[in-house]
Amino acid sequence: MHKNVESILISQQKLEKTVKSLAKQIEKDYNGKEFIMVGLLKGSVVFMSDLMKQIDLDFEIDFMVASSYGGGTESSGKVKIIKDLGVDPRDKDLLIVEDVVDSGNTLNFVINHLMTNGARSVKVCTLCDKPSRRKVPLTPDYCGAEIPDEFIVGYGLDYDELYRNLPYIGVLKRSVYE
Ligand code: IMP
Ligand code: MG
Questions:
Q1: Does pLDDT of 71 surpass 60?
Q2: pTM of this structure
Q3: How far apart are the first and last CA of the chain?
Q4: pLDDT tens for residues 73-87?
């Protein structure tokens, strides 16, 4: 275990099972439908690359970059689109892949942005959800794990751009950011 990790919240083995189960749900729901899987960079990359391999359907992928965090562990609440979709979302069915939903500000903004630009539907698949932290109402359509109010890293999730490469999801030691 990494020296800055307090405890492992979701092991590598458990992540594998979680991803497979989400993939099966998505496969069932989107069978026969066209959709674009949209990853929110950078946090979703590890999750999305594992998830997409388990979905036996034909679909496009794309990426967006939205920012709400500074360097710390709290969302600033102000969301900006740094990189928009590469294609016009008009009349498209989009499935956003996210690492973790916290306040809900980021996804709320991104969903509104895509719907305003004419998307037919926008659904959300998140690996983790911290429902107790929500500031705006948002319920993910697919959720790997509901987790307590802890700052987590690994499997794509960072603190100050580090720890994304850890193969598990761990709770970051408080001494690292306090
Ligand atoms: P929200 O806008 O407050 O819902 O924040 C969502 C974004 O904040 C996620 O896409 C993550 O990048 C980041 N985030 C929230 N909680 C954590 C965490 O525990 N670890 C790492 N990143 C987090
Ligand atoms: Mg993120």
A1: no
A2: 0.95
A3: 21
A4: 666 678 999 999 999
**Is residue 102 among the annotated active site residues?**
yes
Sheet strands (E) in 91-147:
93-101, 121-129, 142-146
Contacts of residue 155, defined as CB under 8 A and 6 or more positions apart, other chains included, come to 10, 15, 46, 47, 99, 127, 164, 166, 167, 168, 169
The CB density around residue 86, as the number of other CB atoms within 10 Å, is 12
d(CA 51, CA 22) in angstroms, rounded, equals 8
User: Cα separation of 134 and 153, whole Å?
Assistant: 19
- Is the pLDDT at 158 greater than 60? The verdict is yes
59 CA → ligand 2 middle, Å: 22
Q: Which CATH architecture describes the domain 13-150?
A: 3-Layer(aba) Sandwich (3.40)
Distance CA 172, CA 112 (A): 31
Output the CA 105–ligand 1 centroid distance in Å.
10
Residue 78: the pLDDT is: 84
- Are 80 and 40 a contacting pair, CB within 8 Å? no
